Amino acid sequence: MSNITTGPGRLREEYPHSILERTLIAEYLLGKGYLMSDLKGLPKHVTRSLMSEAYRFAALRLAEIESKANIQWIIRLPISLN
Q1: Longest C-alpha distance within the chain, in Å?
Q2: CA nearest 9: which of 46, 71, 55?
Q3: How many CA atoms lie within 13 A of 22 on its CB side?
Q4: Do 58 and 25 touch, CB atoms closer than 8 A?
Q5: CA 22 to the chain's CA centroid
Q6: CA-to-CA distance for 32 and 2, rounded, in angstroms?
Q7: Residues pairing with 11 in the sheet
Q8: Residue 64 to residues 7, 37, 56, 80, Cα–Cα distance (Å)
Q9: Distances from the Cα of 12 to the Cαs of 5, 9, 72, in angstroms?
């Protein structure tokens, strides 16, 4: 089971990145010309496809953000590689 969702399109509040994830999903949909509220009026297969793409986009962006934070943390470590 995913740490991100409890079901189709339902983000778990205890997931630490849920607000950022929702923001990234909204950003993706806006880039496609939709608001979250627009999805209710679309056919289910279109909504499913858009949300699948939006979740993928959000997951990749979250991974990118986390990777950058980890790299910055590693760079700041006071160790010598010599």
Answers
A1: 61
A2: 55
A3: 11
A4: yes
A5: 7
A6: 26
A7: 5
A8: 24, 27, 12, 26
A9: 6, 10, 28
Q: Is 77 helix (H, G, I), strand (E, B) or coil?
A: coil
* Token representation of residue 18: 């849920």
End-to-end CA distance of the chain: 43
pLDDT in tens, the chain (82 residues): 344 444 445 555 556 668 889 999 999 999 999 999 999 999 999 999 999 999 999 999 999 988 887 777 677 666 655 5
Distance (Å, whole) CA 59 – CA 29: 14
Residue type, 29: L
